[in-house]
Amino acid sequence: xxxxxxxxxxxxxAGWAAWNFLNGQARAARAVIPHxxxxxxxxxxxxxxxxxxxxxxxxxxxxDIHMMVFGDSTAAxxxxxxxxxxxxxxxxxxxxxxxxRSVRLSTKAIVGATSRGLSGQVDAMLIAGxxxxxxxxxxxxxxxxxxxxxxxxxKRVGSAVRRLVEVGAKVIVGTCPDLGxxxxxxxxxxxxxxxWGFRLAAAQTHEVRAAGGRPVPLADLLSPVFLASPxxxxxxxxxxxxxxxxxxxxxxxxxxxLASLGEWGTGPLPDPPEVSEFAENNRxxxxxxxxxGIPVRLRRRRADATVGSDRSTGRSMA
Length: 318
What we know:
Layout: H1 2-32, E1 45-47, E2 65-71, H2 73-76, H3 87-99, E3 103-107, H4 118-128, E4 134-138, H5 141-145, H6 150-166, E5 170-174, H7 189-210, E6 214-216, H8 218-228, H9 230-233, H10 243-260, H11 277-281, H12 284-291, H13 308-311
Parallel strand pairs: 2-3, 2-4, 4-5, 5-6
Antiparallel strand pairs: 1-3
InterPro entries: Ester_Hydrolysis_Enzymes (IPR051532), SGNH_hydro (IPR013830), SGNH_hydro_sf (IPR036514)
Organism: Williamsia maris
Domain SGNH hydrolase-type esterase: 69-248
């Protein structure tokens, strides 16, 4: 009994020490990463195939497609120097170019938002007028830094997707990004946040699909490039993406946006992994086994029957 109590006390002491250490690192990270109080550039309006835009929306000026962007500072484009550099405008111009149709962009994203704020953003959309043809949601990083539990946070995203689908919108969700690429965050906190983010992204993927949306695994698809070129992919605050980072995010989201609108064509859609290869290679057990020279078997992707029909009729992106 005495030994058991001593072991428990030792474990509790170690846990408390680790908690204090990570809290200290979190404070250090907040000192390195500036607290942004500014807003992202606003590029809302109508964009036309002739290159004009944004054009102010009036009762006499309409568009063929209405796209709305929901989420946090990344969705809004904080870190971009101009409206054209934000992910919403970049994605809108790509859709215009690929479809030859005019597109109206409306940004509902709020700097600093977590999944708790999505409901309010959807409420504001429903009060303002007609729902969009396509909705893009980028959310998750603030849930991680706010230490919101992954499962409830993902369920809140699923609820927002379901509400949008019920009013006729096609919904694409860029799942939680990888905070492990932000080198301003010290170790081991960075690794803890990375794993927390992977858990949230996986939970978001499940909830988004169940609600009728289309998840896009941004952590897996963007992290290698951000790690290889941080000076180019991050803005001056070393936390939010730069124009190049947002351009890459928009390019990554584009195939699912076009497919949701029936504009992809005849080639297959890119098939992102259900089990992230990047996440798998960064699991602690995998890294330790490789360092020790022990063979590693990564988990395989399972066939995704829920979106198979959509992926069979797509456009080949040149």
